[in-house]
Every structure is written in structure tokens, then in C-alpha cells.
Amino acid sequence: MYHCRKKLTLLREMLAGCGAGTCQVIVTTPMEMLKIQLQDAGRIAAQKKLVAAQAQLSSSSAVGSAEPAVERRTTATQITRELLRSKGIAGLYKGLGATLLRDVPFSIVYFPLFANLNKLGQKDPNVKAPFYVSFLSGCVAGSTAAVAVNPCDVIKTRLQSLQRGVNEDTYSGILDCTKKIWQKEGPMAFLKGAYCRALVIAPLFGIAQVVYFIGIAEFLLDMLPKHRA
């Protein structure tokens, strides 16, 4: 039987990406939240040590050396318990709006761009493009989307940081965060980490597309025992 695959319009491809991005955000926002707290913990601890050392050196009345405070290592479990105790489930979804603002546009850009780049390597519409074309298309589409939404990633990270360092601003929302970053750090601050993010995202999505091309998931599913009706 001949199966006709209807080609999606660009608008439909973008809407499909929007739906995928929204579903992904609901699942991954708590993990993003915990990741940022763990990354901030070391930075905040280092700042506190520096401030304490400076205060000790400037204090002329201190006699002898004070015992250094024992730093307790922060874990994801501790952060989760504290957030659930103090703020409930909503605590794990702090910055959800900013995460949606980053990941939904990312998917809207990535999926249509990948699909159209991948089609350039297809000699026949009914035959898959070579695996290296899928890899390169995933890399290009992923890095492009990552750089495009990097300003949203900067805003999301600032909003989700629960602990503030010395002289660091606090933010009441997306607009307040955007305004303060623009006024105090300039527009280039929204591109901080863009290159590193692109370097991470590019191979990640390139490899993902190659794995999909090879059909590893389908192979594993075929290995599962099939129940006879």
C-alpha cells in the first residue's frame, strides 16, 4: 500500500516545536532549578570565605587566629527538602515563566530549522538523509537556537538563583530582571555564556539526531517480548 506523507508547513512545524518545548519545560524545570542552586553554592561559599578573610585581616583587635568555619556540602536532596518545606511544589518551579520563555522559542527555532537542513541532504524525499547530514543539521540547528535564546537563559538563571552574593541584585520578575541587567551591565550581558552554551548544545543535538537515525530506540523496543493476543 502506498502511504502519502503530507508535508508540514513551516507554521505547523513551529507549533509542533512549541508543544514539544512546553512539555519539556514542565518536566525539566525542577531539575534546572536544583542544578543552578548547586552551581551557585560553591560561588557563594567562596565569596563568604573571601569576605570573612578580609574582615579578619582588617580587624586589628583580634588576637590569635579564629577557627575556620566548617563548610557543609550542599546536596540536591537538601535543597529539594528545603524548597518543599518552605514553598511547596511551587518552589521547584520558580522561574517557570522565564524557562518557558527560553525553551519554547528554542524548540520553535530548532525543530523547523533541523527538518529543513536535513532535507537538503535527501536525494529522494522517501529516503533518509545520510547520518552525517543529520548530525551536522542537529549541530547547526541546536547551536543557532541556543544562541538565539541565550538572553532568556541569562534571565532565567538570575531569577532561579535563590542565594545572592555580595552586592548582587534581587529581582521581582522577568521585566525587572531585564531592566536591571540592561541598565547595570549593558546589552552584551544577555549574551554571556552564549558560545559555551552553543558548544554544549551542538554536539548534544547532533548525537541525538544520529541516534534517532540509527534507530537504537526502535531496536531496543523490538527486543522486548511481544505479548500474543
Secondary-structure element order, N to C: HHHHHHHHH
Sheet having the most strands:
none
What is the number of helices?
A: 9
**Secondary structural class:** mainly alpha
Envelope shape: elongated
Roughly what percent helix? 55-70%
The rounded Rg comes to: 24 Å
Quick one: how many beta strands? Answer: 0
Structure description:
- With 229 residues, the chain is mainly α.
- It has helices at 10-58, 76-87, 89-92, 96-119, 131-148, 150-160, 174-185, 194-214, 216-223.
- Helix 4 packs antiparallel against helix 6.
- The model has no long low-confidence stretch (mean pLDDT 81).
What is this entry, summarized?
The chain has helices spanning 10-58, 76-87, 89-92, 96-119, 131-148, 150-160, 174-185, 194-214, 216-223.
Fill in the keyword field for this structure.
mainly alpha; 229 residues; 0% strand; 69% helix; 9 helices
Blueprint (SSEs and pairs):
Elements: H1 10-58, H2 76-87, H3 89-92, H4 96-119, H5 131-148, H6 150-160, H7 174-185, H8 194-214, H9 216-223
